[in-house]
Design brief:
Blueprint lengths: L9 H10 L15 H10 L7 H15 L1 H11 L5 H4 L12 H9 L2 H13 L14 E5 L3 H11 L9 H10 L9 E5 H7 L1
Antiparallel strand pairs: 1-2
Bound molecules: zinc ion (ZN).
Length: about 200
């Protein structure tokens, strides 16, 4: 063992700095641990504690994230002016179809639509018409597709705009019988519905 006082020169410091296994110098750079490794790490970290200050903040954040208002605020905050998502929303998006999907949602959220779904379920005694299983995840399937009916409806009132006259069209939709025709619906379970569409 060497004894005495060793002075660390600038050269030593530089050499030490260069040899630090960081970033690209690290042997694990660019590799990802396997699921098994992650599980081992998780097991070995069980029961470990952070400093009380860190535990206090993480506990506080966990509680905050449970609050829907806080989550909504965080979500809105993430939509800053420079956010690329925002600049591509709605009319600015190349796939913008003139507000059709928003209008689609308006119709689907109408009480009349909810009543139509209930009526279809009642008609088929809450039983999937393909696999004959009663109950479960039921959906009402349109025999003539919803998009076709919507197309016919918009063609009939093509003088109105789905963005500017949205609420006028909503009122007209109530009187458009094809939307609410009980003969045009069939009860299917979620699984069978996927196969039909
Ligand atoms: Zn089914």
């Amino acid at each position: 063992m060497p004894t005495g006082i060793y002075k660390r020169t600038e050269w030593h410091k530089k050499r030490q700095k260069d040899s630090v296994l960081k970033g690209k110098n690290h042997p694990m750079y660019g590799t990802h641990p396997s699921q098994a490794t992650l599980k081992k790490l998780s097991e070995s970290h069980k029961g470990m504690h952070c400093s009380s200050k860190t535990e206090f903040t993480s506990e506080k954040m966990r509680k905050l994230w449970k609050d829907p208002i806080f989550r909504a605020k965080q979500f809105l905050a993430s939509y800053g002016k420079k956010c690329p998502k925002r600049s591509m929303l709605g009319k600015k998006h190349p796939n913008w179809q003139g507000g059709i999907s928003r209008f689609n949602d308006i119709i689907r959220n109408m009480n009349q639509n909810k009543d139509w779904i209930k009526a279809i379920f009642r008609k088929n005694n809450y039983t999937c018409q393909v696999c004959n299983i009663r109950g479960g995840n039921l959906e009402a399937h349109h025999i003539i597709s919803f998009s076709k009916i919507l197309n016919d409806f918009l063609n009939k009132y093509n003088s109105l705009s789905i963005t500017k006259n949205r609420y006028q069209l909503r009122k007209l939709a109530i009187t458009f019988n094809m939307f609410w025709d009980i003969n045009n619906g069939i009860t299917l379970c979620k699984k069978c519905h996927k196969e039909v569409v």
